[in-house]
Amino acid sequence: MKRTFTLVFLMAAMVTAFATKQSVSKVEPISWWVGMENPELQLLCYGNDIQNATVEIDYAGVTLTRTEKTDNPNYLFLFLNIDPSTKPGTFNIVFKNGKKKISKWAYTLNARNQGSKQRVSFGPEDAVYLLMPDRFANGDYSNDSVKGYIQGVDRSDLGKRHGGDIQGVIDHLPYIKDLGCTALWITPFFDNNDSQYSYHHYATGDYFKVDPRLGTNELYKALADSCHALGLKLILDVVPNHCGIVSYWTNDLPSKDWYHIWPTYTSSNYRMTAWTDPHAAKLDREILEKGWFSYNMPDLNLENPLLFKYLSQVYIWWLEYGGADGIRVDTYPYNNIKVASEFMKTFRNEYPNINIVGECWVKSPLEIAYYQSGNNNKDGFDSNLPSVMDFVLKDKLQEAFNERDDWDHGMAKFYAHYAQDFAYPDVNNIMNFIDNHDIDRMSGAVNRDLNKYKMSIAMLLTTRGFPQIYSGDEIMIDGIPGNYEGYRFDFPGGWKDDDHNAFTAEGRTTEENEVFNYMRKLLNFRKSCTALQTGKMTQFIPYDGIYVFSRYDDNSRILIIFNNSVNDQLVSLDRYKELFEGSTTGTEIITGKQIDFTTKLSMPAKTAYVIKIIES
Ligand code: CA
To answer: N or C: which end of the chain has fewer CB within 10 A?
Structure first.
């Protein structure tokens, strides 16, 4: 009996010793680079009772300038100055308790890739293809379920994982290029071992690891390299508002204010208007900013400078490591927008040419323009977002072709919308779309009417700004209105047991080919037509469903004519002659037909013509 008691006592003592033993289990970012614009590197060190450790670094060019503690003894933040003369290599970070060494951590500084800082980004010349990796193509069946990860594959359930992955994206890059897109935006791919809805990856568990069900860090880099080899640009999805509930942070917060914690669960009011509304109540702004996006996505307190720097370094790490060319920012106005702006500045500081398109889902051009950098807002706010998304145009696109034209409906909606472009500092750097992964599919909005659908594509690909195509748009893919999963159907043919393969002309239905070929023709025309990329725009007031505008620059003039009427119409072009002055003919891009501007133009009901003016 006595022996047993001794053993139990000893075991308890060992457990206590273990519990208090200082250790280091994480240092993040997991590596860094020499020669970054900002020479200061912040390292988050996580480990049992690590806060009171002393730290030594002995490496030429690297200076530990200061350390910072939080209210949690398991975290210690180090600030290193990396002199530009530092040689790339690996050194030890030595953690000590007095003279006793607790731990040493090998840390690597890499050399930057040539041209990293000056990388060329996406812009008005591009057409962006958006896809969600889990829903696009399964290129690796061996990663469908991974040991230690809760969710495997269940394609029968729209809310569960379907098995698509980064390899599937790499495999189909030639398809995306052939369609005529020049840039690729994939939704997030970070580790997320949640028990539900893990497929969308907007809830991050580990920022420095590609989820093994999507691939590996090396495979993400291979994706960027494969894009570049094909002349495609890659866009990184940056999420500054929230992380995933399944994170080591959740059980052991780096500091009490790391997340916005409420006495009871409080969701955001999602009313982004509160930032621009001069009459907004403080409480509404607070709930907009600090309320959670959903239960499984803790709201990050970006006003905590340690978190701010941590997260900024996360995305700089991925830009530097993976080599993406630009940024899309998720839920920008769900942050304190002044802090979000400073956050964007850290990227523009490191990469002076980088384009950043912000998701500011607001309801009027005035509000969208407020978020475009350079807007000279009355309150002095500058978002540091060179590009914004035209959510209002999306509404018009989903409505107008269903409507009878009158003063306010049908084509008048576009006319009135573009008339408000005076609000924007850079109207060509606006991203347009007919739908995306958070919105009802266009196919449903026009009730699968092929003519209306084609008109929406014609508008998307010829108007000012640049287009974003959401995977499946090119085949008029179905959806279910009103719920997220209903916007995220698998791309047909992405799985080997799919009996329908829309990646090939042979596999597509007649209707799919008609949409695909229509979009492909216009996208490829746009690719070499600077007038459609950066040209000016002139529009005429629509009458009787006929709406005419032109895009033009020194290289070419393009005439775009819509007949939104349910009747065929004979259109006299005389009224529009200022758009084709000095010319009498043009070529319609889709049909290749010659158009004579001196006679009446026969336009079938619900059609759009895109006409390149033949200069005499
Ligand atoms: Ca897979």
So the answer is: N
CA dihedral of 456, 462, 465, 466, whole degrees rounded to 10: 80
- SS3 string, 276-317, reads HCCCCCHHHHHHHHHCECECCECEECCCCHHHHHHHHHHHHH
Nearest to 272 by CA among 184, 134, 203, 371: 371
How close is the Cα of 291 to the center of ligand 1, in Å?
34
- Cβ neighbors of 140 (< 8 A, separation 6 or more) are 165, 167, 168, 215
pLDDT of residue 14: 41
CA atoms within 13 A on the CB side of 238: 31
Are 166 and 210 spatial neighbours (Cβ–Cβ below 8 Å)?
yes
Lowest mean pLDDT among 19-23, 172-176, 189-193, 528-532: 19-23
Q: Could you give the angle at the alpha carbon of 28 between the alpha carbons of 104 and 57, nearest 5°?
A: 40
Average pLDDT over residues 606-614: 98
CA of 457 to the centre of ligand 1 (A): 31
Tell me the residue length of the chain: 616
Q: Which position has the token pair 């449903």?
A: 444
Strand partners, 586: 595, 613
Say yes or no to pLDDT of 575 above 80.
yes
Q: Find, among 250, 273, 489, the residue nearest to 362 by Cα.
A: 273
Q: What is the whole-number distance in angstroms between the Cα of residue 235 and the centre of ligand 1?
A: 22
Cα–Cα dist 185/436, whole Å: 11
Query: Which are the contacts of 148, defined by CB distance < 8 A and separation ≥ 6?
Result: 193
Alpha carbon of 161 to ligand 1 centroid (Å): 9
Q: Is the pLDDT of residue 7 over 60?
A: no
As to burial, measured by CB atoms within 10 angstroms (0-12 exposed, 13-18 middle, 19+ buried), residue 15 is: exposed
Q: Strands 356-358 and 387-389: what pairing? A: parallel
In this model, does residue 583 exceed pLDDT 50? yes
| CA-wise closest residue to 22 among 86, 97, 122 | 97
pLDDT > 70 fraction of the chain, expressed in percent and rounded: 97
The string of DSSP letters for 512-559 reads HHHHHHHHHHHHHHHHT-HHHHH-EEEE---BTTEEEEEEE-SS-EEE
Band of pLDDT at residue 20, cut at 50, 70 and 90? low
Tens-digit pLDDT profile for residues 54-78? 999 999 999 999 999 999 999 999 9
What is the overall mean pLDDT for the chain?
95
Residue 172 has pLDDT above 70, yes or no: yes
CA of 142 to the centre of ligand 1 (A): 6
In 408-534, which residue ranges form alpha helices assigned H by DSSP? 411-419, 442-445, 450-462, 510-527, 530-534
Tokens of 228: 């570049």
* Positive or negative: CA dihedral 401, 403, 405, 407: negative
Distance between Cα 168 and ligand 1 center (Å) = 8
Residue 22 has pLDDT above 90, yes or no: no
Residues with catalytic function: 330, 359
